[in-house]
Every structure is written in structure tokens, then in C-alpha cells.
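User: Just a sanity check before I run the rest of the batch. Below are the C-alpha cells for the first item. I only need the designed sequence back.
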């Protein structure tokens, strides 16, 4: 081989080893994409990230981008989608997009024709005096003292002062609720009967002045109906035959017609009667079947 050919071979080898074409063949994960162009050079199943949010364009992977055309930081339920408050939940699934503690629905419900709250802006939030995540305009108890704003306004009480309630507005505690089974309690109970200075003064200054005189009568009727219910309830516990059960069922019906029982007491007793009837029927069938089997 002549000297020219040798030098040509040396020069050709130099070009081959230093050429960008050789470098372009660097493909660590063997996915056919040059490492320089591969967003995931060590993952053969992923190689591109169009929106640059760290999640791959290729589907079906644990790092796949659910929103490949929009850069996002969500990682819970969906990857790489818009996540305004950065809580990992994509805006499309987040019931509080801006993370201000008040749900999107409540913010929109608090909006008016003059003021619309932005569910994408944590600084634009409806007033919430008691921080219970319910905007004041939708909250029936703005100071979270257990008393509804409506009752407090009727009694002349401050709806934004937790320390002031209809029971404390005249100093100390001036009222109670009587709750069956719990006795007298000082906190508000919708299922109780109120006895208070606030209620009395409110009634005296309104059209309730006449019904106040009927309170003892109402209480007597309530007590009589309650006692009647308890009597029937005790009798039903000891029922052992259908004939007696029918008698009590008739008596309960008559008591309801005569308004000697409250409606809900009558419903409770009828349910107990039905259960007892099924129990007694089952006992009769069991005896009947056992008698047949002995024969």
C-alpha cells in the first residue's frame, strides 16, 4: 500500500471517530433517540416531554402526562395538569381550586351581580367571620355560637359576637332548654323546649303574648300524650299472643283518632306492633310445623 493510501485511511478514521454522526449514535436506553434529544435517556419507553412539566408524552406509563399540551404540577389522580393551588389535585377535579378553604360552589353561590368571586384567586374570598369555610352570606350562624342569626336578630342579639347569645345578653346565664332524656341544658337545642328571659321578653313584645297563657295547657297535653305512649310501649313488651296484640292495636288507633297520642308516637307504636305480629306469626308457624313433623 502506498503512502498516500495510508494517510487517506488515517484521515478517514479520524473523521469517523470525531464526526457528530458517531456522537449521534449515543443512545443509552436503546429507544432509537439520541441521548441529547431524549428527555428520558435512561427510560426506553419515554423520550419526550412537549410541555416541559416533567411528565412524558408517551401514554401508559407511571410518568405519563395526562395533559401533554399544557404544563402542570398535578400528581394526584392526574399527572401534569393545571393545579392552581399546588395541592396535587388537578383543577378539573379540585372542589377548591384556589385552596382558600372555601369550595368553588360556595364562592360562586356567594357571588352577586355586582361582585363575582374568582375561584382561581385565593386572595379573592367571600367574608367568613367565624372561619368555618361557609361564607357569611350563606352561613345561618355567622359567629358560630350555636344560635342561628335569625333567632339572634329577633332577640336583638349581635350575630357577630360569639360571647353574646340570647341566654347571655342580659348578663350571666338567663335561660335553659329542657331536652327529654337530657334534662335542662344551657346550649341551644332545636329539639328542646326553651325557658329563658330572652324568650319571655321577646314574646311579651310580640303577638305571642296570648299563646303564653296556653303554655301550661300545652305542657299538660304533652305530658299526657307522653305518658300514654309509655304505657302502650310497656304493654307491647309483654305481649305473648295475637289476640291481645289486636286489642292494643285497636286502642292505639283510637288514641290517635282522639289525639291522645302524638303522630310520631303513633307511628313508632304501629312499627312495634308490626314487629311483634311477625314474631308471633313466626312462633305459630314453628309450632305448627313441629306438630306436623311429629305426626
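Assistant: Here's the designed sequence for the first item:
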Amino acid at each position: 500500500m502506498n503512502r498516500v493510501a495510508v494517510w487517506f485511511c488515517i484521515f478517514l478514521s479520524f473523521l469517523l471517530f470525531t464526526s457528530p454522526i458517531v456522537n449521534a449514535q449515543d443512545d443509552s436506553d436503546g429507544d432509537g433517540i439520541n441521548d441529547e434529544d431524549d428527555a428520558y435517556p435512561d427510560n426506553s419507553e419515554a423520550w419526550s416531554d412537549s410541555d416541559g412539566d416533567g411528565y412524558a408524552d408517551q401514554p401508559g406509563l407511571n410518568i405519563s402526562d395526562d395533559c401533554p399540551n399544557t404544563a402542570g404540577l398535578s400528581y394526584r389522580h392526574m399527572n401534569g395538569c393545571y393545579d392552581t393551588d399546588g395541592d396535587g389535585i388537578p383543577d378539573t377535579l379540585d372542589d377548591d381550586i384556589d385552596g382558600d378553604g372555601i369550595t368553588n360552589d360556595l364562592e360562586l353561590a356567594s357571588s352577586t351581580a355586582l361582585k363575582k368571586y374568582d375561584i382561581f384567586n385565593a386572595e379573592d374570598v367571600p367574608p367568613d367571620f367565624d372561619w368555618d369555610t361557609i361564607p357569611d352570606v350563606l352561613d345561618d350562624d355567622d359567629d358560630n355560637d350555636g344560635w342561628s342569626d335569625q333567632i339572634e336578630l329577633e332577640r336583638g342579639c349581635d350575630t357577630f359576637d360569639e360571647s353574646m347569645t340570647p341566654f347571655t345578653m342580659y348578663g350571666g346565664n338567663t335561660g335553659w332548654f329542657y331536652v327529654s332524656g337530657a334534662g335542662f341544658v344551657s346550649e341551644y337545642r332545636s329539639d328542646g323546649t326553651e325557658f329563658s328571659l330572652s324568650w319571655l321578653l321577646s314574646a311579651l313584645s310580640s303577638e305571642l303574648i296570648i299563646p303564653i297563657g296556653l303554655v301550661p295547657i300545652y305542657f299538660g297535653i304533652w305530658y299526657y300524650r307522653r305518658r300514654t305512649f309509655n304505657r302502650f310501649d310497656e304493654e307491647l313488651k309483654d305481649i305473648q299472643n295475637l289476640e291481645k296484640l289486636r286489642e292494643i292495636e285497636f286502642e292505639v288507633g283510637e288514641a290517635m283518632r282522639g289525639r291522645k297520642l302524638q303522630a310520631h308516637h303513633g307511628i313508632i307504636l304501629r312499627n312495634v306492633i308490626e314487629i311483634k305480629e311477625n314474631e308471633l306469626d313466626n312462633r305459630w308457624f314453628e309450632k305448627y310445623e313441629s306438630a306436623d313433623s311429629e305426626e
